[in-house]
Amino acid sequence: MIKTVTQAVVLLLLITGCGKKSNVIHPLLLVPGYGTTQQTWANSGLLNHFRLKGLAYGGEIRPDSLGLAVLDRQEIAGKEDIFVLVFPENANSVGELGTYLESAIDLINKRCRTDTVTLLAYSMGGVVAREYLSEHFEKPAVHAVVFVGTPHRGSYLANVAFATSLIFSDEGEELYDKLCSGFGIDSSANKLLLRDLVTSGQGTYLARLNARPHPANVIYCPVVTYHEPGINSLITTFNEMIGIAIPKVEPKGDGVVSIESQEIKDLPAFKAVPDNMLVEPYRLETTHTSVLSNFEDLFSVTSQFLN
Questions:
Q1: What is the CATH number of domain 23-155+194-226+256-303?
Q2: What is the pLDDT of residues 38-74, one digit of tens each?
Q3: N or C: which terminus of the chain carries fewer CB neighbours within 10 A?
Q4: What does the alpha-carbon distance between residue 224 and residue 251 come to, in Å, rounded to a whole number?
Q5: Cα-flanking dihedrals φ and ψ of residue 28, to 5°?
């Protein structure tokens, strides 16, 4: 009986947001990374924690048959503070995802009668956010963006999975599935997106994005994640899978993205952004795949940009 009552209380708290009145001015949109699903936010505990802190859940935003964002709301009507974005499965580039993100932001601002949203963007989601912002330099409908483990200069994992072209061979498909399993990635994700995440050498998508000016009236807050073994732990895992030795590298990071790749201040794209709009990096000692479980830290960082 006690267990049943406890479960009912927890459910009520999630629905009502602990009874707190929300003061959110800039609704929050959770933007996923490569190969993550809408369940990632719930499984990590992040979504429930944010709701228990008083944010009212607005629902999942999904693509319709035309690729435009629509709201799939599964709960009672009421205030809407936080939304989960689901990417279209058939998008072949970050550019396409940026266009889709635009329709999601427009949808939220219309529903909530607001002018700007705040983005909590995980991994590749941060690159998608930057694609949108660079295309809306004059009047972005974004108040702030929190980058979590975002590969602004590319990811070693993307290099391994895409640049080697192993994923396109028969043997590579099996290897790719193992790689995804090892790093908690949905293997059904479109592999072509990895092309836009390889390290930013000349001619790559990220090299072009990093040269495009970003709006000066948006707050940019990087959450830099690191883990002592860094990228070398990824290489060790990959070497064990394929049975050949890829040389170890020096950069430290979170096992997927180097620390240097997660930092933004020295990127040409942010040259015109005032210092007061570039928040000092918030550093979390965690791996790339487990960072969202640090929901208390992420709420502390993100909540300051909601009102």
A1: 3.40.50.1820
A2: 889 999 999 999 999 999 999 999 999 888 899 987 5
A3: N
A4: 14
A5: -100, 130
